[in-house]
Automatic annotation (TrEMBL):
Domain of life according to the entry: Eukaryota
UniProt-recorded name of the protein: MCTP2 protein
Lineage start: Eukaryota, Metazoa, Chordata, Craniata, Vertebrata
Location in the cell: Membrane
A Gene Ontology BP annotation from the UniProt entry: regulation of neurotransmitter secretion
InterPro entries named among the record's database cross-references: C2_dom, C2_domain_sf
PROSITE patterns: C2 (PS50004)
Domain C2: 1-59, 93-204
Length: 204
């Protein structure tokens, strides 16, 4: 019931420098549980923003009245990576030893925000649901930890996809839950849900 809402939410997106992505933002209005209406969209060219500083942007909504006030900071990202299985970041014994030393008890209070990190190897899925009329799916996998999100590539026309990717996340809260969701890519339409698992970090 507000024409001037304040959300004060923070989201972290992992932006890799070889990408030329736009940040797409949509504002929606809910009448009730069944009806939603698009109030406007706006776009931010990430490559045009100065780095290592917080940019205050007032973005007019396209083809609709109103504007969106945002703070966007582009900063070097530490601890996040995507790699192939054959070049797994923790495969080197020397690196494992450095990490063990970094997180040993005597160094516990050196950096209070550096809780640790999680490495996830996404190997494959088996017997997925067919989402296309051809009896196949175009699956990809999305990993979410807190408000960090990474995803695999899409394997087309396959119910038993193999991704063989390694994802590394910094841990901000040991009580977070790793959510792994499989979607079917559907062209310009929103992806179809194929399944999901949730793994509390404390269970690992």
């Amino acid at each position: 019931k507000s024409a001037n809402p304040q959300w004060r939410e923070q989201f972290d997106f992992h932006y890799f420098s070889d990408r030329k992505d736009m940040l797409d933002i949509e504002v929606w209005r809910k009448d009730n549980k069944k009806h939603e209406e698009l109030l406007g969209t706006c776009h931010v060219d990430i490559t045009a923003l100065p780095t290592k500083q917080t940019n205050c942007l007032e973005l007019p909504l396209e083809k609709h009245p109103g504007s969106l006030l945002m703070l966007i900071a582009v900063a070097p990202c530490t601890g996040v990576s995507i790699s192939d299985l054959c070049v797994c970041p923790l495969g080197d014994p020397n690196e494992r030893q450095q990490i063990s030393q970094r997180y040993c008890i005597k160094n516990s209070f050196r950096d209070m925000k550096d809780v640790g990190f999680l490495q996830v190897k996404v190997l494959k899925a088996v017997d997925l649901m067919a989402a296309d009329f051809s009896g196949k799916s175009d699956p990809f996998c999305v990993l979410e930890l807190g408000n960090d999100m990474l995803q695999t590539h899409t394997v087309y026309k396959n119910l038993n996809p193999e991704w063989n990717k390694v994802f590394t996340f910094p841990i901000k809260d040991i009580h977070d839950v790793l959510e792994v969701t499989v979607f079917d890519e559907d062209g310009d339409k929103p992806p179809d849900f194929l399944g999901k698992v949730a793994i509390p970090l404390l269970s690992v």
